[in-house]
Amino acid sequence: MALEIVDLCVNCWACLPLCPNQAIQASQPHFEIDPQSCTECLGNFARPQCAEICPVEGAIVDELGEALYPPGSLTPHTCMQGAAPPA
Amino acid sequence: MPSPALIPPASNTLAFPTGGCSASRCGASANQHDGLPEETMRKVQDHPCYSEEAHHHFARMHVAVAPACNIQCNYCNRKYDCSNESRPGVVSEVLSPAQAVKKVLAVASAIPQMSVLGIAGPGDALANPTRTFEVFAALQQRAPDLKLCLSTNGLMLPEYVDQIAAAKVDHVTITINCVDADIGAQIYPWIFWRNRRIQGREAAEVLIAQQQKGLEMLVARGILVKVNSVMIPGINDEHLKEVSRLVRAKGAFLHNVMPLISDPAHGTWFGLNAQRGPTSEELEALQDACAGDMNMMRHCRQCRADAVGMLGEDRGEEFSLEKIESMHIDEVAAMQRRIALREAINADLQTKRAARHAQVITLHHRAKPAGRPVRMAVASRGAQIDLHFGHAKEFMVYEVDAAGHRFIGIRRAAQYCGGETDCGEAETTLSRTITALADCEVLLCSRIGIEPWGKLEAAGIQPNSEHAMEAIDTALDEVWQTMLAQGKLAEQARNGQRRA
Ligand code: SF4
Ligand code: SF4
Is it the case that residue A86 has pLDDT exceeding 70? Predict the structure, then answer.
């Protein structure tokens, strides 16, 4: 099990220092998660740290290709209506 | 005259009306810092960043070692550097801590005026604590004469205050845009807190609480704290007066209000949603209202996070990574050069200060010469009048009178339209520049073309290139004295040129 960074990534570095497994690399054209090292933070944190801090909706997806923070989940509009974060 | 800023005196600040009476200005530097504890005043008086008279003589640089950020601001697009700490739409090359240390030592050896090293981004200094403190620790060893500073959104401040004190950081800048979570929710959509993202009002509540706690802890440890606020019309503009009172009551030595720069092209939430920035007048009115700390830091240029050199004078090109690799640096000799230069500059400033004091006393004894204040715009890269009018991206505006001059603000010309969201295509760059300088009567530059000369003159702004390459300080006073001698300053200001 591993998460993946897709090409929506803007290379902002936010995720990199948070990974408990040093699974994230500052690659080009965008940052990458080493699927061998990623544990989805299981055993370390309740939520995958990279996805929790990533500022770009849809940039980090699970093995099914589903965004952890899909479009609309981070826009100020939704926030102000008190939307719950994704499970 | 700007209307006096009547701020109810907070516990340790004395609110003087800025510019409201010449007496509050004539002591210049002394009065800039009224109300601050003696200890803080001493630190600020010759400070290479915060003293309006000293900052011209020193150089400072930021290194881009802190890329990550832990909050989202609606005025920021994370493709680019933090738009609060740098020019929006700019991407810096991220340096490793080792590269950053090398670069600082190279610059500090080539430019002996170099006296302050800051870590401000391109994200948040304390969202990258390992990298930030690694640079500070290395420099404390190898260039202990340099002052260190950092900028932060404040979220992680309480956690790192002790490390900041241990690293002998000279000053910390906290960006505080509000102290009310309802307002905060309109500025910050989310923060990363205790290993998860929190959104909405709760996010703003945590951030505000952390910022205030961090501010108090820094002040308690004797570290200088400056507060930056981004003025967002309709959201926090009125509220910033309260922020200003509060942060100064808690001991921040300076509150610096900066304009929101908002452009759809930057891809920020505010930019894309037509949130406008303030006009120059709105900004100045708020700065006046918040100016319990007098006119300091109006010289702030929102310089790039990796800027090298004097404020606003970008010499980054000279110190690219390849060039630094091949430099040989004698660190000890470089440090001795810096210390000697600093002592010479400070001695010179002392002399000038004493002379000015004497002059002020003389002026007070004579009958007060008639002569109204005049606003003048200057095209410059730093301390001299060294820019062609057509090359200036921004102008420094000063108000000049018999007692001297004070910095009013930066007017971005040509490229920005002063905050109006709907400035039409038809409006030319030149006429926009003229609008931005409407309250000025004189424009000082090194050269200027015939066409803009005529248009400026027609708009009541007298272009003047006679003082090309001279120091701004002396040229301003000379131009004012000339106008006085020509009898131009006896009557009231031109209609509509000045605020009531
Ligand atoms: S999910 Fe956790 S382990 Fe996987 S890359 Fe992200 S931070 Fe690292
Ligand atoms: S936090 Fe998101 S956008 Fe930033 S580098 Fe990581 S994946 Fe890319």
Answer: no
Chain B residue with Cα closest to A8: B79
> In this structure, what CATH number is given to the domain that contains residue A85?
3.30.70.20
Contacts of B78 in chain A (CB under 8 A): 10, 12, 14, 55-56
| Structural domain boundaries enclosing A63 | 1-87
CATH fold for domain B371-485: Nucleotidyltransferase; domain 5 (3.30.420)
Residue nearest to atom 1 of ligand 2 (CA): A54
Closest residue CA from atom 6 of ligand 1: A50
Q: Does residue B195 register a pLDDT over 90?
A: yes
* B42–A contact, CB cutoff 8 A: no
Q: Domain B4-324 belongs to what topology?
A: TIM Barrel (3.20.20)
- Nearest Cα neighbor of A78 from B331, B200, B270 is B200
Coil vs helix vs strand at B3: coil
pLDDT of residue B21: 31
Domain ranges of chain B: 4-324, 371-485
- Tens digit of each residue's pLDDT (9 = 90 or more) over A18-27: 999 999 999 8
The ligand 2 atom at the shortest distance from the C-alpha of residue A10 is: 3
CA angle, B128 as apex, B132 and A16 as ends, to 5°?
A: 135
Q: What is the pLDDT of residue B82?
A: 63
Alpha helices (H) along B437-471: 450-458
Contact between chains at A16 and B68 (C-beta distance less than 8 A): yes
For residue B292, what is the DSSP state? G
Question: Which of the four pLDDT bands, split at 50, 70 and 90, describes residue B315?
Answer: low
The yes-or-no verdict on residue A78 having pLDDT over 50 is no
Q: Give residues with Cβ within 8 angstroms of B202, minimum separation 6.
A: none
Q: What confidence score (pLDDT) does residue A41 get?
A: 95
